[in-house]
Amino acid sequence: MEAEPPDPAGLSFFSVILIAAPAPDIALAIAFLLFLLFISGLISGSEVAYFSLNPNQLAELKSEDSPSSKRILRLKEKPRTLLATILIANNLINIAIVVLSDYVLWQTLPETTFRGWSEGIVVLFPGLVDQLDSITRLINFLVTVAGVTFVLVVVGEVTPKLYATINNLRLSKTMSVPLSVLMDLFWPFSRMLVKWSSALEKRIARRRLIYNPGTRKEELDLAIDLTVSGDVDSEKEVDILKSIVKFGDVSVRQIMTPRVNVVALDFNSKQDQVFKTVKESGYSRLPVYQEDLDHLMGLLYVKDLLGLLEKDSNQNDWQELIRTDILYVPENKKINELLKEFQLKRMHMGIVVDEYGGCSGIVTLEDIMEEVIGEIRDEFDSDEELEFIKIDNRNFIFEGKTQLNDVCRIMSIDTNTFDNLRGESDTIAGLILETLGKLPKPEQEITLGGFKFKVLLVNKRRIEKVKVTITY
Description:
The chain is of the alpha+beta class. The chain has helices spanning 13-19, 24-51, 55-64, 67-76, 79-108, 111-124, 132-166, 168-174, 176-185, 187-211, 215-227, 234-245, 252-255, 271-281, 335-345, 365-373, 404-410, 428-436; strands spanning 257-258, 265-266, 285-290, 292-301, 328-330, 349-353, 359-364, 388-392, 395-399, 445-448, 451-458, 463-470.
């Protein structure tokens, strides 16, 4: 009995490849396709290579003074144009790869092949016999679209970019000539793309600034939360980074030591009283006044007093040590500007003045540093100076004189939380007094924003202790 010829529709993929040897034009198309994949990989990798060059590598290229180094530096001078050139070239090549792949697949795998695979699936799953055409189209899609895309992503994108990350300088030198030619070739198109993207970027940025002026800092805060690791010490890192972001928004008034807490020396004090005050305060610099703090004579540096310990001096020798170079700082000055002024004038302390020229308090370099890195405690600081009790994460007890900025920091909330409520007040007691317009009674409660303030202790002159509860 004569054997029946095999059904072409039932042939496997490998059988089709072995039986149907590619024609010369198909072989040429496959070779050209592989060449395009190689070129696509080089161009994709060059994007990572050029934009990952660090300052040390760029300095090395400048010192080499070779033709390839000069070309790389020339390309890096116009990063937007370089990126536009790479994107244009890469997209054109990828389009050519997709079109050529579709041609090669249809020539190598005719439609009957997909039909045969579909019938093989139906044999295994008879319930799908009515879906034969749909299965054929699905296989066609997976092979021609998903398969080509997978090869393009792996061979033309992922692999070369991984290689470029490790060998960025080597690949940059290799691609310096092709990219220079492509930049000159695509110059009109890349220039148009750069202008269009720049105009769009400016328009979007302008609209975001108009409608969401605080968005950028909020995004930075979110980025910090997402990027910093979640280990034990990461919470401190997050606080420091967020403090740096908001550094330029903090005014001197928010961090200064208020006038009522300033330790100063009377110009008419006897020398033994001066030594006693210096010893008890532990400060290295003290303001010197006559009559009151609105009439400052200068600053006394404690180190200057050391010479008086070695000789028999009269009771007023210390007054000759007063330094009259005083830095006066307005309350609304930003602390980033004050830091620059401290650095420029080589000073560590400033006298904060109000709009009338009266002394509001003092601000030091340490106060500015604490705004970024948190509380700095030395051998003269005692635990009692913390001046707060944490009951739980939502309830705290503070001294009335505690600065609102410190209250926010202790409760782990934004330091700008009370800006719309504080008015002219700097302390938690001042906030309550400004809200009520009078001294409150003991146990009196007031609610402001998302906080409840309960006055625990008050005397005839001031509020001494306040319980703060976060209600939101």
